[in-house]
């Protein structure tokens, strides 16, 4: 037997895992597989590493995504070769689109087996295309190659994942057989001498972020200062600290702040125009409140009504501030795209406004806030025996414990929370996969988010999104996640679209009813189960689940047709009430 190959495999895998740990990447999401054996052996032998082990590669990739959303630091994803690698693509797309760091470690066959018909061998090096920030195809481990090459490559990968713009990076790792030495033949594991004697990365990267351009701030302030009727939009932000910086900026300008559910200040912050999405559903309010200027800070806002409102209003200037160079301008209305640290940008403009105070129209800001408060009073007055989807979203936002995180599925759950959530609940961190807005991997994202936060998590999800990621319920057995599933027997969001009028084919092709309940799934994965029949029962069941200390699945049955009618009636009532007020 060739003893050099397994020893080289073992050494390189040790170097990869150890160097990732030294770079601050200590959480590994792993799906079982043969070709990744050297990596798993190195991981198991390193006491500093933490692992989430799950049988589905797509789930582990989304768990890594959820962990990074909670911590701002990348997790590493380890997978075997072949279609296992392809299963990571949805999470990679989401991470790339929304700027979430990940390190993808994909085991591969050696080059002599590529394009030969060898089993479980596909073209892996560029499989994720431009959705990765950086990629490198490592050679198969060889005693003749300087181990420092492995270390510098890992250091580059960790740096490229974490530097702005953050995102996924891909290391494709070829391993020849035999994959490991026999028991008792373990090699001495060590790298370059200076590295072996320290606990620091081999190559330390230091990015000196450029300061905010004061001249650009001055020019921008010259345009913003005279504006009396402007808006500040807080899109998706990474932390509440960023959200609060945007809030101080808006208060300094004297403009209303419109907070997206992902802004980290939509929940638990008073005095905002929080119910702007419902307000903009009324033609009267939208028609009389077109802004002169807009400053949008952070990622894309969820509200389609807001997007259409601003496109129609054509504010000038229209400023977008993001911590990456990517364009955020689907309507092609943006006049200033600023790549800057959110905290630094807000501080710089607050300083400018302090030195040269802005023109303010207090009635403009008061009008937005009072209208939003009118919406809140109307929603608080709604009573319902049976649970409905808008009310569940609002009640959940009122009752989520302050020590929880909140993960919201795409489609209707995140829209309902954005529109109907209260502002007087706990200011919990919120995560949603709104980069590419898919429904896949949502349960796994919540599992990773809970591990990253180190605290319980509530997940609000629809029935199809839960079915799409059902096997990830297995990840919830050793964390505390309360899954609230709104089961309207199908794809509820399609009922709001024009296609719903085509009754001759709508149900089988778009409604896609499955006719399933989730009690058997909860039992299968060892989760507690609740099925409340009234909104009061839901509040009680949710409180019990939060106090339980282990994961619970709460299933709420709703009706799709009634849900559409209720949403339309609520928005019409809001529009009428605001118009009268």
Structural notes for this entry:
The chain has 581 residues and is α/β, with parallel strands linked by helices. It has 22 helices and 17 strands. The strands form 3 sheets. A 6-stranded parallel sheet has the order 2-1-3-4-6-5, sandwiched between helices. Helix 15 packs across helix 16 and helix 15 packs across helix 21. It starts with a helix and ends with a helix. The model has no long low-confidence stretch (mean pLDDT 94).
Short overview:
The chain is an alpha/beta fold. It has helices spanning 4-22, 37-45, 57-71, 83-86, 89-98, 147-162, 193-196, 214-224, 240-253, 276-279, 283-288, 304-313, 342-355, 362-380, 389-399, 412-420, 442-453, 463-468, 506-511, 519-524, 535-548, 560-580, and strands at 27-30, 50-53, 75-79, 102-108, 134-138, 168-174, 230-234, 257-259, 293-297, 318-322, 336-339, 405-408, 430-431, 457-462, 481-487, 528-530, 552-557.
Order of the strands making up the biggest sheet: 2-1-3-4-6-5
First CA to last CA: what distance? 85 Å
Classification by helices and strands: alpha/beta
**What portion of residues is helical?**
40-55%
Contiguous runs where pLDDT drops below 50 for at least 5 residues: none
Shape: globular
Summed over residues and divided by their number, the pLDDT gives a mean of 94
Number of H/I helices? 22
Quaternary form: single chain
Strand content: 5-15%
Number of strands: 17
Notable traits:
six-stranded parallel beta sheet, 22 helices, 581 residues, alpha/beta, 41% helix
